[in-house]
From TrEMBL, chain A:
<dbReference type="InterPro" id="IPR019183">
    <property type="entry name" value="NAA25_NatB_aux_su"/>
</dbReference>
<protein>
    <recommendedName>
        <fullName>Actin cytoskeleton organization protein</fullName>
    </recommendedName>
</protein>
<feature type="region of interest" description="Disordered">
    <location>
        <begin position="778"/>
        <end position="809"/>
    </location>
</feature>
<comment type="similarity">
    <text>Belongs to the MDM20/NAA25 family.</text>
</comment>
<dbReference type="Pfam" id="PF09797">
    <property type="entry name" value="NatB_MDM20"/>
</dbReference>
<dbReference type="InterPro" id="IPR011990">
    <property type="entry name" value="TPR-like_helical_dom_sf"/>
</dbReference>
<feature type="compositionally biased region" description="Basic and acidic residues">
    <location>
        <begin position="798"/>
        <end position="809"/>
    </location>
</feature>
Automatic annotation (TrEMBL), chain B:
<dbReference type="InterPro" id="IPR051646">
    <property type="entry name" value="NatB_acetyltransferase_subunit"/>
</dbReference>
<keyword id="KW-0012">Acyltransferase</keyword>
<protein>
    <recommendedName>
        <fullName>N-acetyltransferase domain-containing protein</fullName>
    </recommendedName>
</protein>
<keyword id="KW-0808">Transferase</keyword>
<feature type="domain" description="N-acetyltransferase">
    <location>
        <begin position="2"/>
        <end position="160"/>
    </location>
</feature>
<dbReference type="InterPro" id="IPR000182">
    <property type="entry name" value="GNAT_dom"/>
</dbReference>
<dbReference type="Pfam" id="PF00583">
    <property type="entry name" value="Acetyltransf_1"/>
</dbReference>
<dbReference type="InterPro" id="IPR016181">
    <property type="entry name" value="Acyl_CoA_acyltransferase"/>
</dbReference>
Length: 959, 183
């Protein structure tokens, strides 16, 4: 580049670097005036434009640049950013491929081409590029790039079954063609083992592993050791592993539980490895092995004492397996070991979960165990307090249904409260960053009251739970476990605002929003006051979704780093190379899985649907909303989802004969893949009908790559057919009210669909219209369609040959749905149902009303009614709207009244009285309980009144 | 008793019980992926037999010349699994890898000056304060403005490559630097 030119171009880069994109555009224009064909400047201008969201202009320039088949480094780099900004990843690949073809000696272009393919998961092409590079540049790193690309291709869901072994064999052949053996570094060694495992060549793998270097690698690399264990197990070399484990446990004092499991597996191998019933000889031999293993574990237990619990726990596992294989063991053996274990480790918090798998006692054994535990209650020191917490949890775990009467549970709740309050003395001097040692007693109180509520159906018990847990939370501000219980209970009590407060105090962020936002965003639309303009929950959805936006590029870039590191470590000094090189290939597989699970997260799209449901209640139903959401939901529709939601984090100390705390306190069954599919269908159908966008138009408007189509045969059917197909999986996931709603939406769109299809302007007309208004540019949301959908633009374009479809009466199901919901509402009001159930009914009815509005907005203008002679249809719509409106208004009135009632002094008094049991039993302050009562009733009032007003507003907006 | 295994990217879906604790920071996704892509052998997890995560350590190797060392970026054990020697075991693995694989001179870490449990644990494991770093951390957000909360101790322990213990000093607590002076 000449210096003169350099002087002109520098300012452009400077502007881009400082994000002064507008001045970058100006600077580009200046140069382009004199040199209209300068490709680099065009590329830089495209970059500035895409950053300014001027998508269409950027696109035009980008296409011009690509047509020139650039090979210059600066142009390629700029274009990579442009195309990434436009979501056109496959164009990046093509661009580098073209450049590399022109300069096959350019190693850098080869690398870029390889990376571009990696970024889009194009393993086959990546493999070919790497192979070519290996031939050209004779460097083993490219060989391993190509090997690992083949492995990844074999792993890819899209690769046909029959091709997989072929690819793996190719990879294996390539390994032996390398200049250095695979154990040259642990990374490559891992790849080698992985391939042999996939090809089931376990003996070959074992040879490598038994080699001195192989053993050494496994000693310092956890990842290699992990695959080693796996291969040995698959090879059936259990006994050999057991022998090694024995040595590690006794001589090296290795306390990795995996070693104990190896020895356990080896001990029972002769029985467990066949399905044949064991002969007496085999049984005798295994019994002998058991005795030997018992000695090993006992020795470990004796040596470790209180330092490590592996030995004792392994003994328990040994007894359990002995029993499950039908070998003789003393009936009381397991109980005595559990008692022994408790005596030694009862003061550790994890004692409870350690013992759970071994405690399925009955009859005599259970009695003895129970009386053992009862004799271990004591509250003298923090250590005995922890021990007592375990006693109470363990006793609770084995309660039988006969012992779970309301009276007994109440007595337990009161006892838990008493010991909780006593236990607080051990934490008075702790800083507020520490947890209170007695916290778990409060958690047990919460469990007992929830169980009482389940047994009696009385809401008062939930109030008692809330009061106690609030008390505990104030004393142990860092206890997220207490907050988790409160979040659930407040939702049940119709006080979502308080649940949200606790959730926010947990400081959930980053990737945690994927796993935990379900706590407040599951069916959040039912709590939302969006019709009133309160967008709290909509913003929560948006915030929690940030993680998905920023992630996808991150993972891609990191995949590149992985390969890049392999590159550096071969050039660097030996020890650093070894240090840097451990198992990055295995990381690649994990990263790909991670990316897949995050990109296709169920929670991600559940939040999307919640957001749409709230948006529809919040905004006018115009074409901008309809078209945009239609396109977005269709993108989601084909995803195969992964459920990353964390429910395990919610504590559970309910008896084993009862459902878990999580299950007990879900207001409704948590929405799953079936629920998502049902609601996606509902909204895609409604949007499709309301929209003028048809597939051909949509194609013209979309930029960027479409999602990879999945292989599910179901997805091969035409979209229209799929949208009306009900699947059992969906029905199973819906609540009773949602099932009615689902049927209602199907009936509605079946009825109204034909009229939409008739009135909708033909695509050609639409495209022409849009082109005229200069709006039809890829990447531009169809703003002009707003006019079209409102009817004005359609006139004159929709002269069709066929007659308009005959107007039919509304299907029975539609008015009946509103009647059904009304009677559901009345029944719940007069019964003892919880606020959450009431609000679910209300929200579902409101949603049905909104969908009705969405499906009929096209037919509102008088011109349409006249032109198509839809007078009768319009009348049906009107009748239905009047009917539904009056039901919604009624619900609104009743809710508003309920809201007033709860927050009166009388209402609060009822709350306080309801929780009298916690006052009798303890030092609970009346004022404290009153305070919680006030907070809860105020929050409920706020919800009821807000939703009541929202209903009225929705009716008014769409009447 | 626990399973010692490598930290995997997908563990980010499972670490809530550990990370919801106040002393444990949850970083952006790229933070974890960067560590996993560069120092996977300095990142490991302790897992309970029922599959729950009990704790993890995330570390890196850095520095030049005599300063080449292993660094503990995060060490944490969920409250219900504390005092089971898990931290001790993870630290010893990290020290072993820093020593044998990376050939570092020492291992170091930063800890809030108020985190007395952790400080005394590190001292018990052979670490000593090398210097105090002003305003190294953000506030814990508990509405207090305690300097100690935001200051960090840089603690170190020499490895076999530093037999003369050149990487530590006796009166490190009095040696104060500002956060800008350390990277
Ligand atoms: C600090 C922390 C990692 C310790 O984990 P741990 O698994 O409980 O520690 P270990 O059981 O391995 O303890 C090792 C030794 O440290 C000391 N120690 C640990 N916790 C202690 C405590 N609460 N009180 C007194 N000494 C303690 C003991 O000497 C212990 O040995 P011992 O049990 O044989 O007496 C854990 O408390 C934690 O995760 N805290 C929150 C996160 C954090 O602070 N990380 C450090 C930031 S750099």
């Amino acid at each position: 580049m000449s210096t003169a030119l350099d002087r002109q171009i520098r300012p452009i880069y400077d502007a881009l670097d400082t994000q002064s994109n507008k001045s970058a555009v100006l600077a580009c224009n200046k140069v382009l005036k004199k040199q209209p064909n300068n490709v680099l400047v065009k590329a830089l201008k495209a970059l500035a434009l895409v950053r300014l969201q001027k998508v269409e202009e950027s696109l035009l320039l980008a296409d011009e640049v690509l047509a020139k088949k650039p090979t210059d480094d600066g142009v390629l780099t700029a274009m990579m950013h442009v195309l990434r900004g436009l979501g056109r990843h496959s164009d990046i690949v093509a661009m580098f491929e073209t450049a590399y073809k022109q300069h096959p000696q350019n190693e850098d272009l080869g690398t870029q081409t390889f990376f571009a393919n990696v970024r889009v998961g194009n393993w086959k092409a990546a493999q070919q590029v790497a192979t070519k590079m290996h031939k050209q540049f004779q460097d083993d790193r490219y060989l391993y790039w190509s090997i690992f690309s083949a492995v990844l291709q074999a792993n890819d869901m899209a690769t046909p079954e029959a091709l997989r072994p072929v690819l793996l064999k190719l990879a294996l052949r390539l390994i032996s063609s390398g200049n250095t053996p695979s154990y040259f570094n642990p990374d490559r060694f891992y790849v080698h083992l992985l391939i042999l495992r996939e090809l089931e060549m376990y003996d070959d793998a074992a040879t490598l592993l038994n080699h001195e270097i192989g053993q050494k690698i496994c000693e310092t690399s956890l990842v290699c050791d992990e695959i080693r264990r796996d291969i040995m197990k698959l090879k059936g070399a259990c006994k050999q592993e057991g022998e090694q484990a024995k040595v590690k446990i006794l001589e090296k004092k290795d306390r990795n539980w995996l070693e104990f499991l190896s020895l356990l597996d080896a001990t029972f191998w002769d029985i467990a490895s066949t399905s044949e019933p064991a002969s007496e000889d085999v049984k005798a031999a295994v019994t002998e092995e058991i005795a030997k293993t018992r000695k090993v574990f006992s020795e470990a237990a004796t040596v470790d004492g209180l330092k490590d619990r592996s030995g004792l726990l392994a003994l328990l596992e040994l007894e359990k397996r002995t029993k499950s294989h039908g070998l003789w063991t003393d009936a009381c053996e397991i109980r005595m070991m559990a008692e022994n274990y408790f005596s030694q480790f009862g003061d550790k918090a994890c004692c409870y979960e350690d013992l759970l798998p071994y405690l399925a006692f009955e009859g005599e054994e259970l009695e003895q165990w129970t009386s053992f535990l009862n004799s271990r209650k004591s509250f003298d020191t923090p250590d005995t307090l922890q021990r007592s917490i375990n006693v109470y949890k363990l006793l609770r775990y084995n309660l039988t249904s006969a012992e779970l009467t309301p009276e007994l549970e109440l007595a337990r709740a009161q006892e838990y409260i008493k010991v909780y309050l006593d236990g607080l003395k051990f934490g008075v001097n702790l800083p507020d960053t520490e947890l209170q040692p007695a916290d778990d007693f409060a958690i047990l109180v919460g469990h007992a009251y929830v169980s009482l509520w389940k047994l009696t159906g009385e809401e008062s018990h939930l109030q008692s739970a809330a009061a106690t847990l609030e008390y505990a939370s104030a004393r142990s501000k860092q206890s997220y476990r207490i907050r988790l219980l409160l979040i659930r209970i407040y939702h049940l009590l119709g006080a979502p605002a308080l649940a949200l407060d606790h959730y926010r105090l947990m400081n959930v962020k980053q990737v945690q929003t994927d796993t935990l936002s379900h706590l407040i965003l599951s069916r959040a639309a039912m709590w939302s006051l969006a019709p009133l303009g309160d967008i709290t929950y909509m913003s929560e959805c948006m915030e929690a979704s940030q993680i998905y936006m920023s992630n996808s590029t991150e993972v891609c870039n990191l995949l590149l780093i992985l390969f890049a590191i392999v590159m550096t470590n071969i050039q660097t000094a030996e020890f650093i190379a070894r240090a840097f090189s451990t198992e990055r290939y295995s990381q690649i597989i994990d990263f790909i899985e991670f990316e897949d699970r995050l990109d296709n997260s169920l929670q991600r799209d559940l939040m999307k649907v919640e957001h749409v449901r709230m948006r529809v209640a919040h905004e006018p139903l115009n074409a901008e909303l309809v078209d945009m959401e239609l396109i977005e939901l269709k993108f989601i529709f084909d995803r195969i989802h992964h459920d990353n939601r964390d429910f395990e984090v919610i504590p559970n100390y309910q008896p084993r004969c009862q459902p878990s705390f999580n299950e007990q306190t879900l207001p409704l069954k948590p929405p799953g893949a079936g629920w998502l599919s049902a609601y996606l269908k509902v909204y895609i159908r409604a949007f499709q009908e309301a929209s003028d966008l048809d597939e051909t138009v949509e194609d013209k408007l979309l930029i960027g790559d479409r999602p990879k189509p999945s292989n599910d045969p179901e997805n091969q059917l035409p979209l229209r057919e799929r949208l009306v197909k009900k699947r059992q999986e969906e029905i199973d996931d819906l609540s009773e009210d949602e099932k009615l709603f689902y049927e209602y939406t199907l009936a509605l769109s079946e009825w109204v669909g034909p009229y939409h299809d008739y009135v909708r302007p033909p695509p050609s007309a639409l495209l022409a219209e849009a082109a005229k208004s200069n709006d039809l540019k890829p990447g531009h949301p169809l703003k002009s369609m707003a006019a079209a959908a409102n009817g004005s633009a359609t006139n004159g374009h929709s002269k069709k040959d066929e007659e308009p479809p005959a107007v039919k009466e509304s299907p029975e199901l539609i008015p009946k749905f509103f009647d059904d919901m009304k009677s559901r509402f009345d029944a719940v009001i007069s019964g003892t149902a919880l606020p959450s159930e009431l609000l679910h009914i209300v929200a579902t009815t409101q949603e049905a009303y909104l969908l009705f509005a969405l499906e009929t907005v096209r037919f509102k203008p008088n011109s349409i009614i006249k032109q198509y002679k839809f007078g009768q249809l319009a009348q049906s719509f009107k009748d239905l709207r009047v009917k539904a409106s009056s039901i919604l208004n009624e619900m609104s009135t009743v809710l508003a009244k309920l809201g007033e009632e709860v927050a009166t002094p009388d209402g609060r008094k009822a709350f306080v009285q309801a929780s009298s049991s916690i006052q009798d039993s303890s030092g609970f302050d009346h004022d404290f309980v009153l305070g919680v009562a006030k907070k809860t009733t105020d929050a409920r009032k706020q919800t009821y009144e807000g939703i009541a007003k929202g209903l009225a507003k929705v009716v008014k907006n769409h009447s | 008793m626990s399973v010692l295994r490598p930290f995997r990217a997908t563990d980010m879906f499972k670490f809530n019980n550990i990370n919801l604790d106040i002393w444990t920071e949850t970083y952006g996704i790229s933070f974890y992926l960067t560590y996993l892509s560069r120092w996977p052998d300095l990142c490991c997890v302790q897992e309970a037999p029922n599959g729950h995560m009990m704790g993890y350590v995330i570390g890196k190797a850095e520095g030049h010349g005599q300063d080449w060392h292993g660094h503990v970026t995060a060490l944490t054990v969920a409250p219900e699994y504390r005092r089971l020697s898990l931290a001790r075991k993870m630290m010893s693995l990290l020290e072993m890898v820093s020593d044998e694989t990376y050939k570092g001179f020492f291992v170091d870490l930063y800890v809030r000056c108020t985190n007395s449990v952790a400080i005394s644990m590190y001292e018990g494991l052979g670490y000593s304060v090398y210097r105090r770093v002003r305003e190294y951390y953000g506030s814990l957000g508990l509405g207090r403005a305690s300097k100690d909360e935001e200051d960090a101790f840089d603690m170190r322990k020499p490895l076999s490559r530093d037999p003369h213990r050149r990487s530590v000093r006796a009166n490190g607590r009095e040696f104060v630097v500002s956060a800008h002076d350390v990277s």
